[in-house]
Design goal:
Order of helices and strands: HEHHEEHEHEEHEHHHH
Strand order of the largest sheet: 5-6-4-7
Strand content: 15-25%
Number of helices: 10
Number of strands: 7
Number of domains: 3
Shape: globular
Structural class: alpha+beta
């Protein structure tokens, strides 16, 4: 999962807090559009000082960054319950419906059918925040369902594209192993480590975080976690 220019710039701003424009120009012509988008999102601020232009991360940008990395925390053991989100949004409000689907996907939920999404994790607080942000509190219902062997297999086969998640984890491991061999020799170690950690967090946001008994390639996830822990040493 390759990071976008906007994500890389945000990581640099989070790392250094404030960066002069001339250093951001290393991303080429696209940087002006990226900086404009970061400002429009409220994630970055433009500052002029001593006839020089700087960009710095905003409080909102810091919150977004922290929220993205929150998926790295230990999710604990499974309580053997599935969480269902069911929504009813009319065709006339398609744009909002698409935003909701993207938001559900970004927190690792899988799709059972068009308006029914599912997770093995307790997502109640996140769903509440999403529904408030999109003004959909009356359109979304949240349920908890106790698992059964037959139900579990049907859900996992239908709801998630685990091969794609596994492929992204394999790529993350290979790229990180190459980078770790060269770390400790240059000034860019912290930035590179933070980029890889951010990339790992984005992969985990797409990972349904299924209990170990449902994941055949749990060794892959263990390896990715070990590499993440190694990267943290360089990210501080």
């Amino acid at each position: 999962m390759k990071l976008s220019t906007m994500q890389e710039v945000l990581i640099l701003l989070e790392d250094e807090k404030e960066v002069p424009l001339y250093r951001l120009n290393r991303w080429g012509r696209s940087i002006r559009g990226v900086l404009a988008k970061l400002k429009n999102l409220g994630w970055a601020e433009k500052v002029s000082r001593n006839n020089e232009i700087f960009y710095r991360i905003s409080n909102k940008g810091e919150r977004y960054f922290d929220e993205t990395l929150s998926v790295l925390r230990d999710r604990g053991s499974w309580d053997k319950k599935w969480r269902l989100v069911i929504f009813d949004i009319p065709e006339s409000n398609r744009a909002t419906r698409d935003k909701l689907r993207r938001a559900l996907s970004n927190i690792g939920m899988g799709i059972l059918q068009a308006s029914v999404w599912i997770s093995a994790q307790d997502q109640r607080e996140k769903i509440l925040k999403i529904s408030e942000r999109l003004n959909l509190k009356n359109n979304i219902k949240y349920f908890e369902v106790t698992s059964t062997p037959s139900l579990n297999n049907q859900i996992i086969e239908k709801a998630w594209n685990l091969p794609e998640v596994n492929l992204n984890l394999e790529r993350f491991i290979k790229e990180s192993e190459r980078s770790l061999k060269n770390m400790g020799t240059g000034n860019g170690d912290r930035f590179n480590a933070k980029k890889l950690i951010f990339q790992y967090a984005l992969i985990l946001k797409k990972d349904p975080a299924l209990p170990d008994q449902f994941i055949q390639s749990d060794n892959l996830r263990s390896k990715a976690r070990e590499i993440y822990i190694k990267l943290r040493v360089y990210a501080v």
